[in-house]
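Hey, quick one: can you model this chain's 3D structure?
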Amino acid sequence: MHELSIAQALIEQVEGRLAGKPAASVCSVTIRIGDLSGVSPDALEAAFQVASDGTRLAAAKLVIERVPALGTCQGCRRETSLEFPFHVCGHCGSTDVLILRGREMDLVSFDIEETTPMPDEPADPAGRR
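Sure thing. Here's the predicted structure for all 129 residues.
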């Protein structure tokens, strides 16, 4: 299941961007996945839950934006939506289609919450707390 290695890489990427924020935890991670990427959104979501355990992303929600496949037919020169695994023009039936989108797998954004440590209570004049 390559989704586990994708989830681990995603977590490492977010953790790397939080290097200067030790008090931050991640609330959500938004990614974009193309329908032709070969990634199962359900499997990636399950893998993310497993891989994020014990990290600052453990409570984060994974938001997946799906990108439908789109191509340009080299025969009739029209844009057409594509269905995996067949790249056939929906207008003329040609299989000579240039893929425009649908292979994406991008980290779009992530939301964090920073907790501010509470300062120690000031000592009273007698030195007691």
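One thing worth noting: The mean pLDDT is 89.
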